Every structure is written in C-alpha cells, then in structure tokens.
Amino acid sequence: MSKTLLTVGTRKGAFILESVDRRDWTLRGPYCEGWPVYHAIYDEPTGSIYAAAASEWHGSTIWRSSDLGETWEQSSEGLTYGDEDGRKISKASTLARAGDRLLVGVEAPGIFESRDNGQTWSLLSTLSGQHGSEAWDDPANQPPGHLGISGFVTDAGDSDKFFAVVQGIGAFETEDGGSSWVPRNKGLRRDWPADYEDVGFCVHKLVRSSSPDRMYQQNHVGMHRSDDGGKSWTEITEGLPGDFGFAAAVHPHDTETFYVVPVDGGHGRTMHDGKATVWRTRDAGSSWAPMRAGLPQEDAHLGVLRQGMTIDKHDVPGVYFGTSTGQVYASADEGETWTEIASYLPSISSVDVAIVG
Amino acid sequence: MLEVRLPGTLTPLFPGLPRRLEIEAASVLAAIDELEQRWPGLRDRLVAEGPSLRNHIHVYVDGERAALDTRVAERSRLDVIAAISGG
Lengths: 357, 87
Prior knowledge:
- The complex is a heterodimer.
- By secondary structure, chain A is mostly beta strands.
- Helix content of chain A is 0%, strand content 41%.
- In chain A, the strands form 7 sheets. A 4-stranded antiparallel β-sheet of chain A has the order 3-2-1-28, with no helix packed on it. Chain A has a 4-stranded antiparallel β-sheet with strand order 4-5-6-7, with no helix packed on it.
- The radius of gyration of chain A is 19 Å and the shape is globular.
- Chain A starts with a strand and ends with a strand.
- Chain B is an alpha+beta fold.
- Chain B has a single domain, classed as Roll (Ubiquitin-like (UB roll)), CATH 3.10.20.
- Helix content of chain B is 18%, strand content 30%.
- Classes of the chains: A mainly beta, B alpha+beta.
- The A-B interface holds A 33, 55-59, 61, 74-77, 79-83, 85-89 and B 7, 9-10, 12-13, 40-41, 44-46, 48-51, 54-57, 82-83, 85-86.
C-alpha cells in the first residue's frame, strides 16, 4: 500500500510524517543528530532521503538515509572550496536531483554535485562571470542570512537544464549542466537601485508547473508568473494582502493553480493580521482566494520559509506547509480545508512530500 | 603517546569513535589528520577551509588554548571542545 511521506527539516534535526490516507499521520524523528536541517527531500530515483544540514560546530554536511529514515549516514567529502580559494561554506542550503546528479546549493554561493548518491561531492559552479559576482562574497554585501544558492528548479525532460536562485541576486538558468548560465529576471519588479539590468533581484521561491513554460515565483516584492519558461516575468500580486512572502507551490496537474503564503514584509515576517492563510489562484494569478478553513484565525503569528510549503501528486493533490513555530498543516483537498498534523516541532525550514511504496 | 579527548557531538557520526584515545602526533593538525585516517570525514567536522579550526571548536594542549599548528609533546593531553553555547 502506498503512503504519503513528508520529510521535514527543522532547526533541530529532520522529522518524517507518514500516512496511508492523508488523514491519520504518524510522526518519526528527530533525525540527523539534531543538526539544523535546511532542506530535506525524498529522492525518487534512489528511494533515499537526503538532508542538507549545517552545524554551528561541525560545519555543513549532507545526511542520507536509504531506508526511509531508519538509519542515517553523512558525508561532506569534497564539499569544500579548498584551502587556497579563501571562500568558505557556511551552510548547505538546498538539494535537488538532476538526472544522475544530486545537486546541493551552498553559502557562499556555489553548487556542488554528487554522482554517487551523496557519498562524495565536487564543485560544479559558482556562477562566476555573472554581473557583480566578484562581489557576492564581500562581507559588506551580506544581508542577514548571507548570500547563497537558495533553490533549484530542475527539468524532468533534460537533466542538463535547471535553474538556480542566488539570494538577493536573481534566478539563473543553465542548459549545459552548469557550465554556463543566463540570468532569467526580465520583467521582475525591484524597488531598489541596482548596478545591472539583469541581476539584483530578490527571488525567494521559484517553481515550475506541469507545463515547462509556465513558472511562478514568490519574490521579495511581488508574485510573478512566466509563460515562456522564465525568460520573462509578469507581476500577479493584485488581490493578495501583501507582496512579500517566501513559500510557494504549484498544482501538479493544473498550470493555472498556484499557492502562496503572504507574510508581513517587515521584520516580523508572519502571516497578515494573525490569521493563518494560504492564498490560491485558479486562473494563473488573475484572481486570488484565501484558504482558511481549519487554520487558526486569531493570534496566529506564523511564518513559513521558502522551502516550507509543498504539494503532492495525488489526483486530488494535498498541500502542506510547516511553520517557524513548529506546526505542520495539511490539506487533502487542494487547500479547501486544513488539519494540523504536527504541533510541537522545532522551527521548520522545509517540507517535502512524496508518494512511496 | 598523546592523549586526545573528543566532544560527545562527534561520536554519533563515526561508529567506534571513543571519547578518549591515545595517538602519536607532533601537532594539533597532525593529530586530527591521524584521526581522519581512522575515521574518514572526521577532519571536516573540526577543520574549515584555510585550514583553520571551525569557529566554535576550541582545542587545548595541556590546558592552553591551541591552534592547528601548535606543537604537542609526547604525553601531552589534547582536549577538543565544542564551545558551550546554543539553545
């Protein structure tokens, strides 16, 4: 019997939630020895779970489990800029599968790859040569949280094509497996001066629909949609309570349906008015509707980070998000109604979902 | 022989790694490299690019704060401490 598996990355280790009916959930963990886990994913080709982690004491590593979390190993062999470069890895931020390669994005900005399922790593790219990239590591340019590679979007049909997001800089696409990169930020809004036309954007979350050309993104300033595979973007914020947020998810079977969690753009970065709300568009951003049934509507100052929301691939997809205060909410009906399926986890960095078995 | 004492945060990562052991080495870095030979990956948990000790890893040789290039004498005691902090 298949089950739905959530891998949850938290400030104090990884956790797993699983269910055969998406109503009753079982929680397991913590795993990864309580290390801060920034992104935990289920990797379909290998059936393994991978977790990008960074300890304040022991550095960055990638944990892996080939038995759905029962046992774990970790390796950072090769996950280094070397002793001569002067750059240091402060955090392993995000993971993705691209063909026979596992990708990890790190701070300072760089992409490492593993071709042996996480046992060893090698530097793939630092996106050097992009406008301003020589200053990405300048401490004077570091925002809180530092610059790094914060996300990937891969292409199911071509493992050499994928996007990488550089925090505070923008989205970039490679079509040759990471040898060369093209900025994909045309049309994005930015409310600040910048030295270059093609970079200097703050992409928080990038997602691709089931149609390769239709993409969405939650930006520091506005929700945006692309109908040409990221080559150009149109803002679709109107109708939302704010333009700021981190999390986003796209419906696996309907390219017009997209979910976001707007949060206050100031220092608080929690949901507006203390009302927990996921917003959904059914028409590619022309209009938005709040999804609140089952979510707390009073004094609920919840935050959701960029890897904190996901959607499964069931015929009627389930939507899931984890909060900065340790709750996981699930909807088995495309966001119409919600249930709290974990209440007291550490602060959540990521939620990923898979159908296994 | 050098007496090495390691933090408890390392032992779950490397099967068979004891908290206390004796090895032969002439410097702090050589001691860590000797441990790396026996438990591959251990060096990376203590040493960052540079090489330098990771920010919150402190090493003491016979009670004195040490760096990677600190020399150690035979029968020295080397304490590796994961700085007490966090929450």
